[in-house]
C-alpha cells in the first residue's frame, strides 16, 4: 500500500513539473495558428529598420480592426537583455476597406508608470503590406532591450500603425508585462523539463528496486526453517514402557 501511495505522489509531481512544457506547447500552437493567417496578407515587405521617421504622432484605432500578440515558444515572456526577441502581431480586418500596414513599434516602461519611458525600441517598417477586408494576417516584430537594462519586470507597450483610405491609424496590440533576464542565465525550458524528468525517473526506479529488495527479504524470513535443539536422552527414557523396564524395576525391589 505504501508503494502505491508513493507511485501516485510521483505521478502528481510529474504532472506538476510538466505544466511549463504544456504551456510552451500551447504557446507554440497559438503561434502556428497565427502563422497560418499570413497567407491572406498580400505583398508583405519588411524594409530596413529606422528607414522612415515615424515621428511621435498618436492616432486613434480604426473601427473593425482587432489585434493580438503571440510570443512564439516563449509563453513566460522572458526577454534576454541585449538579445533579439521575436513576437507575432495578428491583425483582423472586419472593416469594408483594405488596410495597409505601415510599421510596428514598441516601448518599455516601468510597471504602472507609463509616463516614464525606459527605452524606445526600434521600429519595424513594412512596405506593400496589406490586409484585405474581412481577412486577417500576421506580421513579425523583432526587438532587443538594452544589454545594460537591469533584470526585472517591465511593461511593454506595442502598437501597429496602418492606413485605411489614406487615413493614418494605430492600434495597441500588447500592453502587458515582460521579464527582462540576464542572457547568460537563461536555460531552455525543454532542457529543464528533460533533466527534471530524468531525475524523477531515476528516483522512481530506485524506489522500485528498494521495494523489490524489501519484498524479497520478507519472503526469505517467512521461508526460513526453525532449528529445534536436541538434548541427550538416557537409555531408560528410550526403553520406558517396555518389558525391559518392568524386569529392571523388579530386580531393584529385590535388592532392597
From TrEMBL:
It is found in: Endoplasmic reticulum membrane. Pfam families: TRAP_alpha (PF03896). Residues 1-27 form the signal peptide. Its main location: endoplasmic reticulum. It comes from the Eukaryota. Coiled coil: none annotated. It is a single-pass type I membrane protein. Heterotetramer of TRAP-alpha, TRAP-beta, TRAP-delta and TRAP-gamma. Belongs to the TRAP-alpha family. This is Translocon-associated protein subunit alpha.
